Amino acid sequence: MPNLSTQKLRQLFLEELDEKAIEVIKADWPLWARLKQRPPLCDWRTWLVLGGRGAGKTRTGAEWLKGVAMADPHYPGSSGGRIALVGTSYDDMRDVMVEGESGLLAIHKKSERPQWIASRKELIWSNGTIGKLFSSINPEGLRGSQFGAVWCDEICKWQNLQQTWDMLQFCLRLGKNPRQVVTTTPKPLKLLKALIKDPTTITVRSTTSENASNLADGFLEYVEGIYSGTRLGRQELEGEIIENNEYALWRREQIEASRLDKPAQINRIVIAVDPPAGSNSKSASCGIIAAGILPDGKCCVLEDRTISKATPDRWAAEVVALYQLLEADLIVAEVNQGGDMVKTVIHTIDPTVPVRSVHASRGKWIRAEPVALLYERGRVFHAEKFAELEDQMCAFTPDGIADGVSPDRVDALVWAITELALTKRSEPRVRSA
């Protein structure tokens, strides 16, 4: 027999089986799991699973939690009767960790599947084990709870990362040997680096290509063709922790240190818009950022509502909706690409909203420098974690791009802060947030 790959041998083997046998075999996770997807045999408190997009992280976390919940001796850990799932938001956890294709409901045999009570955010196994969902949006929601096992997904996207993690550690106290599995695409965050250095952590790293047999035909070839070798590709495909770009205007530690709760009083709010160059749904993203200026002159970024591949009608509706929601004072719109069309399409949605047109007479980098300087001086804060905006800020370089794409979010951010803090206007009214 010729020297065939493991993947090809599996394919030939499956072709000899009937449909029922195939389903039984496919449900046998230990048969299919890669070595990196199997729990470490040594002692550990945290199993940190780092990987690129589509590397099989979700299936790894779900299978471990399933094994612990069902007291499978092949899965180290003890549920103590209660386990937790922690993610960015309840919607993310429901769509990925619970109901997703690699989520907990999908990987169980029908006869063993836990009862999913969405209204209570609970999973209940037939042996009495209870799984509870908790969101990083509300770290205090963990207070008073206790668990024997925890699955944390995509912690680098968590809004209140440190607070949620700290609260969770106090809850991990049931059973003989409480454990937690963390599945995430890595980013150079302080907590993640500390976890890797922790002697009680076992870290494994997987690339997207290692899971190629479970990805759609052509996906890997396409994304590698575009992103291979780039900083974004190394992070999202290779699962590397990419440190600060030395040429970027912003640093992650600087942004992490500039967070505060939404202020009680805001003097003025603007919605800044960086429209895409085209006029159809295949165009680039439309940057939409809301920011306010406080009584002490500091600025606070309030919302990032950037839309990808949106028609003019759609992004204009989003801009007006955000303006009305925040009771903003002004919409600032860059008109280099669309001219009068930008103001016209916004007024088609609501002709009463004030729109100020701005023109980019200088390059993106030059416009952004004064705003970055305000961050360095502690004059700009973020009301929450804006992961995609902050990624773009830390990748924005002198060539005016961020990881090979137009920095739509950064452009809108720069227009918003420029309007609030770097342009002289008449004194606005004072309002409560």
What do you see in this structure?
Helix content is 34%, strand content 18%. With 433 residues, the chain is of the alpha/beta class. The protein has 2 domains: 33-236, Rossmann fold (3-Layer(aba) Sandwich), CATH 3.40.50; 252-432, Nucleotidyltransferase, domain 5 (2-Layer Sandwich). The strands form 3 sheets. The chain has an 8-stranded mixed beta sheet with strand order 3-4-5-2-6-7-1-8, sandwiched between helices. α12 crosses α13 and α14 (364-376) packs across α16. The longest helix is centred in the last third of the chain and has 15 residues, at 312-326. It is globular. It starts with 5 loop residues before the first helix and ends with a strand. The model has no long low-confidence stretch (mean pLDDT 86).
- The proportion of residues in beta strands is 15-25%
What is the helix tally?
16
Structure class = alpha/beta
CATH superfamily of the largest domain: P-loop containing nucleotide triphosphate hydrolases
Q: Just name the CATH architecture of the largest domain.
A: 3-Layer(aba) Sandwich
Number of domains: 2
Give helix % range. 25-40%
What is the fold named in CATH at topology level of the largest domain?
Answer: Rossmann fold
Shape descriptor reads: globular
State mean pLDDT (0 to 100 scale).
86
* Name of the CATH first level of the largest domain: Alpha Beta
How many angstroms does the end-to-end distance come to? 72 Å
Read across the widest sheet, the strand sequence of neighbours is 3-4-5-2-6-7-1-8
Stretches where pLDDT is under 50 for at least 5 consecutive residues are none
- Give a count of the beta strands, DSSP E runs of length 2 or more: 16
